[in-house]
Amino acid sequence: MVVAKVFKFEKQFDGFPQETDLKLVEEQLPEIKDGEFLAEAVYLSVDPYMRAYAPRLPLGETYVGGQVAKVTESKNPKFPVGKYVVAHFGWRTHTISDGKRTPGWTIPMVLPDFGGLPASLALGVLGMPGNTAYFGVTDILQPQQGHTVAVTGAAGAVGSLVGQICKIKGCKVIGIAGSDEKGKWLVDELGFDSFINYKSDDVGKALKEAAPQGVDRYFDNVGGEISSTIINQHMKNFGRVAVCGCISGYNEKEPPKATPIQKGVLRHQLRMQGLHSTRWEDKWMEGILQNKKWIEEGRLKYRETVTEGFENMFKAFTDMLRGGNFGKAIVKV
Ligand SMILES: NC(=O)C1=CN([C@@H]2O[C@H](COP(=O)(O)OP(=O)(O)OC[C@H]3O[C@@H](n4cnc5c(N)ncnc54)[C@H](OP(=O)(O)O)[C@@H]3O)[C@@H](O)[C@H]2O)C=CC1
Ligand SMILES: C/C=C/C(C)=O
Q: What are the entry keywords (predicted)?
């Protein structure tokens, strides 16, 4: 008899998540039936959407999330024993799946050949965040050689890749994130041209110095007043803004207030577009293969912040929300 450890959504978050909002329980799993397989989690992802989507998640259910799991029993030929799958099984150590899509989430997928790269990358640069960065830049932001690009959340899973992909495209890249240590990593190791610490710098002033002629492209991971400042005061005419996330407001009890952006959008005739990674599901492998190629060529670097132990899922999640991660935040079981 297999016993799964599972985090259930016990209580709706009210502001910043509290440990008592989730409950760790044990579930005895039945024998697998024809068409099913049993998978054991190896790496689990913690992502901002787990906080952003919480208001519409049902209480009492397994908390949402992606994981890389190893197939340990199988009566489904598409998921043989020993293979690794990336799937939206949620915060749980063991899962019985029929290989079909959990409604609203991605379909379980046997990991493609990563050519020796770690399987955990399926949760980061070779998975959803990597594809958000890749398609967000190539399809939505569409930077041109010589453009000046600003990216917020710059040292995170998506932002650190967005900046590097824009460098590959021949742009000048300004990263905005929450610590000087992150800035040093972005500039010294990832090749960003400059860095602004939104916690200690005046973002408007620092951006004027870093980009005196203005910003052609802005990849927005945070929303709020930082984005209002960039959009209203720093964009060049006909610039583009890719709206990827607004984490600055996810933990607020009241809807966050920021200076309206319509004036800036109108004045500079900006093109501003929201994006959701699932829109590229039909060409998902293109992003994974391109990011993998860039890694192999030494042009794209990745970093993981790894928390050990399934029991520490909540800690990893809240550490990430507080900015404790460099690159992708994951949990190793
Ligand atoms: N649209 C889509 O399909 C997707 C959207 N996203 C969104 O992209 C953004 C980045 O996600 P991801 O790369 O996975 O996460 P990150 O790895 O960037 O982790 C979150 C980061 O957000 C930063 N942060 C936390 N609070 C604030 C705040 N008040 N103001 C500014 N920054 C803050 C922290 O870094 P710091 O130290 O800099 O504060 C933290 O490290 C999120 O908004 C997320 O919701 C992500 C994936 C897909
Ligand atoms: C798929 C992720 C979406 C957000 C908003 O993080």
A: Acetylation, Cytoplasm, Fatty acid metabolism, Hydroxylation, Lipid metabolism, NADP, Oxidoreductase, Phosphoprotein, Prostaglandin metabolism
